[in-house]
Design goal:
Strand content: under 5%
Number of strands: 0
Shape: globular
Structural class: mainly alpha
Largest sheet: none
Length: 150
């Protein structure tokens, strides 16, 4: 179950922390450091993406899969999210509604599909040789296979 294993709560907490890092670093770079917005914004965003990937991978989903494969999938999802968000905001604005409504709609949509794709595609538990998924305890942590008896 999603909530019982804490995946959803952890996912949302890490997402909130990622946003705080993004906004905080943007403010620090721009307001304190005097870095132009066009430079500070992508720097802060990229730092928050790296934080998000690493913490979601190890803390939230406790993935033991190949990090390079997960990172490639994660980057593809980021590109898709940027395009989808842009499309939603432009369509909502073009329909005469506030662009901020489009941003809220896009954020809700990307949050839902990001959670599902993180859990079932990007950070999916690898299959064992017998085809079964790795066993997990109540917290979602991987359970080591028992040692063979002699």
């Amino acid at each position: 179950m999603v909530v019982a294993n804490g995946y959803l709560v952890k996912f949302l907490v890490v997402g909130g922390a990622s946003f705080a890092i993004d906004l905080g670093l943007l403010a620090l770079l721009h307001e304190v450091g005097g870095v132009d917005l066009w430079i500070a914004t992508p720097i802060a965003f990229l730092v928050s993406l790296v934080f998000n990937f690493l913490v979601q991978r190890k803390f939230t989903f406790q993935s033991s899969g190949r990090a390079d494969v997960s990172l490639l999938k994660y980057c593809a999802l980021v590109v898709f999210n940027v395009i989808a968000t842009d499309v939603v905001v432009i369509v909502v604005d073009g329909a005469g509604y506030p662009y901020a409504l489009g941003k809220v709609i896009a954020t809700i949509a990307t949050t839902v599909w990001n959670f599902l794709l993180y859990k079932h595609w990007i950070f999916k538990s690898p299959r064992r040789n017998d085809g079964a998924a790795d066993a997990r305890d109540e917290s979602g942590a991987p359970v080591p296979e028992p040692l063979p008896k002699d």
